[in-house]
Structure formats: structure tokens, C-alpha cells
Design goal:
Layout (H helix, E strand, L loop, with lengths): L3 H6 L7 E3 L19 E6 L2 E6 L5 E3 L1
Parallel strand pairs: 1-4
Antiparallel strand pairs: 2-3, 3-4
Length: 61
Amino acid sequence: MINLEEIKEQEIDLDKVYDYVEFPNKVSGRCDHCNSAYFKSSVKGGVFLRERRECGMKKSI
């Protein structure tokens, strides 16, 4: 299992969907990659997905 420290050391893959339980936001409501608070939300197949508008980083909630 990869932890948050390992993610910080390597570049964040913007094509991957990260699981919020495993990788919570460092600052609540802010992106770990670009520090933006603006995001798009969608629900598909019972999965709530948040995508940052600035960088495109995705997390499933």
C-alpha cells in the first residue's frame, strides 16, 4: 500500500483516481497538488468523484 508521504515524494498522477480514505486532503477542501478549492463533482455507479478544475486531480469519496 502506498502512503501519502510516498505520493508527496513522487509526482502525482493526474490520470489516476485516488481514494479519499487512503489519501485525505492535507488541508480540508484544498487540492494536494495545486491548492485549489474549485472542483467538479459527479456520481456514477454509486461512487462520488471530485475532480479539481485547476489541475484535474481526482479523488473518490
